[in-house]
Amino acid sequence: MDLMNINLMRNFCEVSLLVLLLPLVRESYSVETVREVVEINTSACFECIVAEVDFTTWSFLRRGQSSGGSIIVQRDQPNDKQKYTVTTITNPDNTVTMTLEVISADEETEGQYSCQEQGNDIVIGNLIVEIPPQLMLKKDGVKLNESIDVVFTEEVQIQCVAAEGKPSVSLSWQVNGEEKTAGVTTDMSREDERIISSMINYIPNKDDETLSCITSGQEVIPSEQATVSINVMYAPSCNILVTSETSNQFRVICACDANPVVSGYKIWVNNSLYREAMEVFLPSTDPAIVSCSASNDVGTDTSEEMKLEPFHVDQPPSTTRVALIVAIPAVVIVLAIAVVLVVVCKKVRRAEKSKEETEKSLQ
């Protein structure tokens, strides 16, 4: 064999080897890894650009498995059309974009999806499925519904349980929409049980209206919350109100703030029970020390004492006073008339005298 033929054969072998290795070199740097996170029972999609659809397959390796994946798509035909669909679009450079759709993602379809052309990985897609937790509030082990009765300043334990969520969530508390951290403890259960609980030792204030447990920590599922309305009950807080209703009576009222409403009132006069009522009328002519008490289902409160001073307003006038009231204006009127008459008479006399003097001077 001459030297020229030997060189030709060598070049042919090098070119052939290069052609055979090109796909391997291409795949060594073109493998794309993608991550898709979706909520359970929603769809998920992976795209793969290939040269030939006929030499393409999709395989699936379930989460938690290290080997034993199965082919789910050959060419553009899924093996299970209830779970997957495949669409293809030819690009301007004659490559083909294949889209694999997981119709309804769940834990059975969660895992790794590989797009392979001629046995070489082009795209490796990791599907992660999130599951919203079942959130509930409990008191003494009993699930709470829309509202809860609590007593002002009396501590109560409320438990928040988030079950079946994936991944596990974090829990926080809010009172009236503002974060509450005091008295909160968290119990994290095992990951495989997917249960997390949080306990709050809650001390109610009178203006509290809502108590909420909030979830966080999931990527595509928004925060959820469980909320109960708070009915804060408290014993009466009472004060004495006094008005002068007539000229000879005090109107005494026992005014109380309470929840639930007051079930019974008592009014005390000079440290003795006067009447079981919310208001009474007392003589305004006599001094007295008054207070009141009120009760409801929570407790009883007694107001501070108030001292009532006697007074006489709009007292009916006596006969003498009537005579004086009538006589004094009459005297004033008479005196005024007399003064006017005196002044007029003086002016008349002065005029007459002036006239006489004038007549004498003319004679």
TrEMBL record:
Residues 133-229 form the Ig-like domain. Keywords: Cell adhesion, Disulfide bond, Glycoprotein, Membrane, Repeat, Signal, Transmembrane, Transmembrane helix. GO terms for biological process: heterophilic cell-cell adhesion via plasma membrane cell adhesion molecules; homophilic cell adhesion via plasma membrane adhesion molecules. It is found in: Membrane. The keyword Signal applies. The keyword Transmembrane applies. It comes from the Eukaryota. It holds the Pfam family C2-set_2. Its main location: membrane. GO terms for cellular component: adherens junction; membrane. The chain crosses the membrane at residues 322-345. Residues 1-27 form the signal peptide. SUPFAM superfamilies: Immunoglobulin. This is Putative kin of IRRE-like protein 1-like. It comes from Stichopus japonicus (Sea cucumber). The lineage of its organism: Eukaryota, Metazoa, Echinodermata, Eleutherozoa, Echinozoa.
